[in-house]
Design goal:
With 228 residues, the protein is an alpha+beta fold. It has 6 helices and 6 strands; from the N terminus they run αααβββαααβββ.
Length: 228
Amino acid sequence: MRELQQSDSGPASNGCQSDGVAVGRGQRGARVLKAGLRTVVVLCLFTTLVHVVLVFLHVAPANTVSKRYTAAIDAWVYPYFEQNWRLFAPDPDSVNRQILARTADTGADGSVKVSDWFDLTAVDNSTVEHNPFPSHTTQNLLRRAWTSYTETHGGDDKARTERAVMIQKYLNNIAADRVTAHNGGTFDFIQLRVITQPIPAPGTATSGPRTPAETRLLPWWKVTTHGK
């Protein structure tokens, strides 16, 4: 009887120990999970706070802090978090704008081969036409990039601020990506030509002479990501 009681008590004791180990592991796993969730929540709150502060400095009147950290603010806000009132007061374009691009490739012997002009605007228009749900990228990416370029460069194509340099690279990359996607190949330089034709106001007589189109030829830009 004593042996039976001792043998019975042995397995029962081992079972309690294994249950305790399982419970301890479960508690450790729960603590790790809670710690991970706390970390994620803290990171989300911190990112949200940084975003709110940077956007506030972007829209607020110029001050000492915004002037000092202009580069960091612009790097965070543009181009995805740009703030404006066009959603509530839309200002549609009053011109038809055609943006074309051509590329130049330098051969091993030093000769330069220049391509024909490629109509970037026509590609966007053909994608939007008859499409009931055209993408925002197709409709506005190239147009907004050009608008931002004219706002930052004026009429002499000289970048005088860090944002102007960023916008120039942005427009350069868009044009290079569009040309590569449709024509393929490699090239070292790219040049843009923009033809702007004013749209007559509603009710304006159409029999008179039309306002001549304005053509703007940009300088050649080096394209490192699409070069040889």
